[in-house]
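fwd from M.: "can u put these together and see what the complex looks like"

so here's what she sent:
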Amino acid sequence: DTEVTQTPKHLVMGMTNKKSLKCEQHMGHRAMYWYKQKAKKPPELMFVYSYEKLSINESVPSRFSPECPNSSLLNLHLHALQPEDSALYLCASSLLDSEGNQPQHFGDGTRLSIL
Amino acid sequence: AQKVTQAQTEISVVEKEDVTLDCVYETRDTTYYLFWYKQPPSGELVFLIRRNSFDEQNEISGRYSWNFQKSTSSFNFTITASQVVDSAVYFCALTMNSGGYQKVTFGTGTKLQVIP
């Protein structure tokens, strides 16, 4: 079992639907990350939150809307997605330190399919 | 700009063989960190090993060992006596400090298949 829990594990949605992905960790990590991973590709960073504030948005389309309601939760709200958004969405967390050398802990991911 | 190259796309070995995964990186930073992650079919990336740019000492941890050479910008990873459970995609990653959190550059991954 991973220490980062993502729900749902699988999601199929139409292009007009609104859905949310959820990520939860109780390790006291104050940095949380969303990645998108296409098949046979490495994860691509989407967003980084540190101390519940958005620190990085890697030019992600506005149809993806992240939210960090508290230090343990990270959500990704989805609206009007396109078929090319079908992918594995991974959440990760890490400790924050002055050197940035802490390993990231990943969840199992949500496999998203857009019809 | 940072770059991580994993030239081996797929490797197949027979169980109990040793296997080395290659990683070459590029960075202009003097302080950086290198990681290896394993991604089994279940999806989650699992942290394996970490090395900082100031420590070139090579180590062994169980069946895992790594060879970090700054002179050639390489960070190779070896699994000794491979097992079927080692079958996964392995990512080499380079991180830089971005105010405490990490901004990670992943390599393209090497898919390892261990045949019984």
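replying to her w this: Chain B has no helices and twelve strands.
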